[in-house]
Design brief:
It is built from two helices and 19 strands. By secondary structure, the chain is mainly beta.
Length: 275
């Protein structure tokens, strides 16, 4: 019976595919596309029996559809951040001339879902002197994390930031202010960027579970997705819908079939993170 699901992972999206409304002979080749059978209203007794058989086959063809997103390559900004900070960056008065010493980097194209984890340690002596260190971690122009050693003589902190589609940039900064000979200060920051965790999205109704339509009778079926980040958008990415039907971006498949026959098509759901 038609209705088998491809187990090959897809990157960035999940497709609804399978077969409905059709039976196959033993050992027949299995299709990987969705089929929606449209039957005529006026049926002979024999045709009615055949239609019942098709609907019974339709129920048996139902199956669960899931797909895991394959790991995409990290963004250029994510890779650059690892190059810049993964091994740790230090500014220490023991190896610096008098003055202000800054390390500042900005990353403007982290992909949604990529996560930056950072940690920082620092010290200065004597407390309250003109020699001290600090750090900043900012998201889109606002300093979400900051610390300094001038008032306490030491600092130790860590944090995490997960990029979203609304982010403009993420920045890391450390400063060592070495203004008095004989005083000391040091600051070290380490940061790493990681890719999003794999996402499994399920599309409903499952492949093979579409009901048969009838020429001249209004048809309505709504697709829903879960497992990713809402909202989802839906589109026909292969094949053609039956004449008279259309798919809205919210997953509603509606219309009135105008021609009897079989239509092959694939519906794809994409979540807010383009998965």
């Amino acid at each position: 019976m038609r209705g088998m699901i491809s187990s090959r992972p897809v990157a960035g999206e999940i497709s609804h595919s399978g077969a409905t409304g059709l039976c196959r002979a033993p050992n027949a080749k299995v299709s990987h596309r969705s089929r929606l059978t449209r039957a005529l209203r006026d049926l002979s007794p024999l045709q009615s029996l055949l239609r019942l058989a098709l609907l019974f086959c339709l129920v048996l063809a139902a199956s669960v559809l899931t797909a895991a997103r394959t790991e995409a390559a990290p963004s250029a900004s994510c890779s650059q951040l690892n190059t810049d900070w993964a091994a740790g960056v230090t500014r220490d008065s023991a190896t610096l001339p008098l003055g202000t010493h800054q390390v500042f980097t900005e990353y403007s194209s982290l992909a949604p879902g990529e996560t930056v984890d950072w940690s920082v340690v620092g010290s200065s002596s004597p407390v309250g002197s003109d020699t001290y260190s600090n750090y900043w971690a900012s998201n889109g122009g606002s300093y979400d994390f900051a610390g300094e050693t001038q008032s306490t003589g030491s600092m130790s902190a860590s944090g995490s930031h997960t990029a979203s589609s609304g982010d403009t940039y993420f920045a890391l900064e450390i400063n060592a202010f070495y203004l008095n000979a004989g005083h000391s200060t040091s600051v070290t920051m380490t940061a790493t960027c990681s890719e999003p965790s794999p996402v499994t999205i399920t599309l409903s109704p499952a492949a093979g579970a579409l009901t048969a339509g009838e020429v001249g009778t209004a048809y309505s079926q709504t697709f829903t997705a879960s497992g990713g980040t809402a909202p989802y958008t839906y589109a026909v990415t292969a094949g053609t819908l039956p004449d008279g039907l259309s798919l809205a971006t919210d997953g509603a498949l509606t219309g009135t079939p105008t021609t009897a026959g079989t239509a092959n098509f694939t519906i794809t759901a994409t979540d807010a993170n383009s998965d």
